[in-house]
Design goal:
The chain has eight helices and two strands. It is mostly helical.
Length: about 190
Amino acid sequence: MKIFPNGRSIKVPVDDMVMWLINVFWSIPTLLLAISLTIIFKDSQLTLIYVAVGITMWVETARIVRGQFMSVRELEFVEAAESFGFSDLRIIFRHVLPNVIGPIIVITAVNFATAILIEAGLSYLGLGAQAPQPSWGNMLEANRAYIDTKPYLVVSPALAIMILVYAFNLIGNGLRDALDVKTQLD
């Protein structure tokens, strides 16, 4: 609610406030926030990376969930459920959520893959996990001097990162296909 000098007030819908908050957090680059937190706290703990990833990556999921819910809530079957007098929670969990779960799963899998890449990149730069904590980014950084003589020392962790990120994407797509209501009807 905004209060003006003359005493008038304008009601701001919750959706507008949430979207404003989402846009604020979406403007923060994940990598820059993680580096900043590491420098501010003078500590390369994984907790700081988790905080940076959590603060900045929830917004993509929130925007997709909001968009999907807004598009599905306008469909006839939701209107029919409302006309039957079903509660809002029943409509959300029994009718709307099953129809939007596919994109939610895919964006979640992509966010996991992105978080893995961010951690590996920060560890490569020396700002993520520190020895003796295992990290593929640390392995890449420690062995980059041997790229000419022993390339497998660099190729192995790089391939592991690539395979894991690809696996998260495949799992997300597979779960979307398995749980998507629309494909089950065909």
